Amino acid sequence: MAQATRPAGSSAALSDDPLESVTNWLQLNSKPILLAVGGAAVVAASVLIYRSTTASTREKASAALSQAQGPFTEGKFDEARSALEKVATRYAATASGQQASLMLAQVLFEQKKYDEGIKSLESALGSASGDFKASMLAMIAAGYEFKGDMGKAAEQYAKAAAASAFAADKQGYEASQARSLMAAGKSADARKIWERLAQLDGALVQQEANVRLGELLAKP
Fold first, then answer.
1. Alpha carbons 219 and 184: distance in angstroms, whole number
2. 158 and 218, same structural domain?
3. What is the pTM of this model?
4. What is the residue range of 93's domain?
5. Counting Cβ atoms within 10 Å, is residue 205 exposed (0-12), middle (13-18) or buried (19+)?
């Protein structure tokens, strides 16, 4: 499958901790709280409760994802789909929930349900963190590749490259964009990307870029 997702290890340290919103609320309402029980104690208690709740949610999400991976790895796609949909929906704001969204799309693509897979990823993008957005966009691009719509695949790879925080990933998505453009018959646009990638000394994509440029130049 085109553009594999980043390894789970790259997202293991992700945080789902928007503590600032809790603190801001307490600050705005500090006067009545202070009159009742004392602001410092309330803030401390609220922080502890919030952290405990989010940690529990992350643990539950991780356990649910681990359980859903069983039928996925065994190729039991109907069972995997049901389990992954639950994790992706219930824990959408967590790293595990977003991993489940990517795996769900893979299941749907394996079942040749490309439109459903693309649609599920587009829905998941709304709550996706920056660490997962690029992978989801690349997976959407893969869905369009399976459908044979290389023009749209190229558009999604471009978005994935723009959303990526890592240079190597960005360059990889740009290379995929250029390949899709070539397959779509847009050689001039592809050539611009390959020419830029060919200038990146030491980059993994540099050698391929030079080969692709040679192919393009050899065409009448």
1. 15
2. yes
3. 0.73
4. 62-128
5. buried
